[in-house]
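Batch job 17 of 40 flagged for manual review because the log was empty.
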Amino acid sequence: MNQPEISFIVPIFNYLEEMQVMLATLQATLPSGLICELILVDDASTDGTRQWLIEFAGPSLRVMLNARNVDFAWSNHAVVAVARGDCHKTSLYGLVMLLKNQQLDAHCRIAEVAGHEVMDVYASDFSAWTMDDASPLTLANLCIDTVIRLRLKAVFPSIFILSEESVTAEQHFSETFFLVDSLGGIKELLKLNGEFTVNIAVVHQGQVVAGFVLAPALGELYYAASGLGAFKRVAFETAVLQVAEFDGTDPLRVIGSRFNGADALAAWLAVLPYEHRFVVAGSFLKFYCIANDNADIYPRFSLTSQWDTATAQCVLESAGGAVLDLTGNPLRYGLDRHVLNTTLCSDGR
């Protein structure tokens, strides 16, 4: 085999059946002429993945077997040393997404169809109900959730769906699932200020590997996928998103809310060792202000849910930023994890 141009490093743990399907898809869609190697790192799987990988290995597919479960970050770091091409770390789902742009387009179209439904409600004389947790609910939430669920099932019938309004009936543990917030920023919808969004994320093994968020009233679509980058589409123009590095020469642009966790935010700003400027934005647009280079950091001192942050985290991370918890680690997602996030901090690094 010739020297590969690219080395795709993909850590795997207990994902045999789905991995077999994705590898078949990958082999069928690799661009002709691309010389690459795929390095699959098994993190001590217990479902037969290890045995299957040993038999499947070949010149362009290398297999490394961890003696014990050491986590994906360590696996990625260890494999870089033996990769023969430019390293590209990703999940298997993210790699297939990278080579099959039509899947990105399918997600974008689903978000756009849901956006049309939102705007129909937005233009009407709609009303809202109060749920048990005191949060508002509108007809738009229910209609859009149904539209997204039906269309995702039509295109990706085997992938589990968890949303704020509903959950797939055959509930089971799944390492890959859709995480949907059919109408993010409902308070902004009720204020008629246009700062509300449709959010669809793909979670794989605790990480968000693809995210799609549409602000239909603003005509803005943000989307990202692991290894592919982050993008903003307005009308027919698409721009690549890249966060700006804060070098300390200008005031730090802090974005946040004057209401959620205001006291904790004020205390945090009081001890901030940088000259700063505070910017207020709608709750679901703060992450994207960082990705658009209109802010540097977003500290959040009140609770959020997994579906509140997933799409935004994917977009921001793919643009070079980060969404971290208080320990400095990226937020994680999963059906086996508590739905609520605690304090978080988003930044452009």
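Reviewer: the log was empty due to a logging misconfiguration, but the result itself is present. The mean pLDDT is 77. Unflagging and moving on to job 18.
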